[in-house]
Amino acid sequence: MDTSFQRDPLDNQILTALMHDARTPFAELAKRFGVSAGTIHVRVEKMKQAGIITGAQITVDPKALGYDVCCFIGINLKSAGDYPSAIAKLNALEEVVEAYYTTGNYSVFVKVMCQSIDGLQHVLINRIQSIDEIQSTETLISLQNPIVRMVKP
């Protein structure tokens, strides 16, 4: 990873366009920004090498796949040394879609997606709370997700 890379306005324009639609052809970006397709290719490769661009992905609506329950669970560990093994066990649970090591009231904060409240109850009681390293949890059920956006380049 190249940490010395400095973005310029063209790099930011390329990032913004690709964040909007990662499938945009380089030739189209080149025409839009008044440069050659080769310039776009070189800029994208440099941003990949610098670790700014880490991949391309599609966005899927979890509700369309039947995941109607989104919740956040604050987790208190028995001790700070339990973090690595607790994270490994949480990572093995497909319902855990994000995890954060945090300051404040919780050691770990996770986002969980389930198909139903019954499914959430099962995951919470039988899978998460049964992890030995976890002392306690607090669950917050999401009612809406009104703001979703990527960071601005």
**Radius of gyration using CA atoms only:** 20 Å
| Beta-strand residue percentage | 15-25%
Largest sheet: 4 strands, antiparallel
- Secondary-structure element sequence? HHHEHEEHE
Question: How much helical structure, as a percent, in the residues?
Answer: 25-40%
* Assembly state: single chain
Mean pLDDT: 95
As laid out across the biggest beta sheet, the strand order is 2-3-1-4
Shape from CA axes? elongated
Q: Uncertain spans, ≥5 residues at pLDDT below 50?
A: none
- Cα-to-Cα separation, first versus last residue: 18 Å
Please report the number of helical segments: 5
SS content category: alpha+beta
Count of DSSP strands: 4
Keywords:
153 residues; alpha+beta; four-stranded antiparallel sheet; 5 helices; 4 strands; 35% helix
Written description of the protein model:
It is a single chain. A hairpin with a 6-residue loop joins strand 2 and strand 3. Helices cover 35% and strands 20% of the residues. The longest helix is centred in the N-terminal third of the chain and has 13 residues, at 37-49. It is of the alpha+beta class. The protein has a four-stranded antiparallel β-sheet. The chain has helices spanning 9-20, 26-33, 37-49, 83-91, 117-128, and strands spanning 69-77, 96-101, 108-114, 134-141. The protein contains five helices and four strands. Helix 2 packs across helix 3.
